[in-house]
Amino acid sequence: MNKGFLIVASFSLAFAVVLGALGAHALTMVLNQMQLSSFETGVRYHVWHSFGIFLVHLIPAPYLSARARKWISWLFLIGIVFFSFSIYLLNLRFLLGIETFAKMLGPVTPLGGGMFIAGWIVLAVALIRTKSV
After folding, report:
1. Which domain covers residue 39, as residue numbers?
2. CA distance 78 to 119
3. pLDDT tens digit string along 85-111?
């Protein structure tokens, strides 16, 4: 079990809760329904994959190697940054004054989704390769 990843996942979850509350309260006044829905999607995937990091560190060692845990955790973290944070920034671009910069974020979102998918595939393959205990 890597304590560092558990700490990062804990802070990531705390930040996701803050962003979820922001979206549910403050942003309802400034974002349209489509933007709010998109923002909520970013929060939802942020939470799921932060919990995913916890999940991989709770699987007993005979079933998942330390190397696989590290790969999966990094893929999920990179996915959170690329997917969720690009969605946050895309929807808040006018409030943050980053309209020009935000144009570059569109292609980043699917890369983050790909990282999430890769993390789950690495988990599945690692579990398949494990000999029964």
Report:
1. 3-129
2. 10
3. 999 999 988 887 777 777 788 889 999
Q: What is the SS3 string spanning the chain?
A: CCHHHHHHHHHHHHHHHHHHHHHHCHHHHCCCHHHHHHHHHHHHHHHHHHHHHHHHHHCCCCCCCHHHHHHHHHHHHHHHHHHHHHHHHHHHHHHHCCHHHHCCCCCHHHHHHHHHHHHHHHHHHHHHHCCCC
Sort 114 into a burial class: Cβ within 10 Å, 0-12 / 13-18 / 19+: middle
**Domain count within the chain:** 1
| Dist. CA 68–CA 118, nearest whole Å | 12
Structure tokens at 84: 């969720």
In terms of pTM, does the model score above 0.85? yes
Cα 101 from chain centroid (whole Å)? 21
Q: Could you tell me the CA-to-CA distances from 36 to 13, 48, 73 in Å, in that order?
A: 19, 18, 28
Q: Model confidence over 52-72: pLDDT tens digits?
A: 999 999 999 889 999 999 999
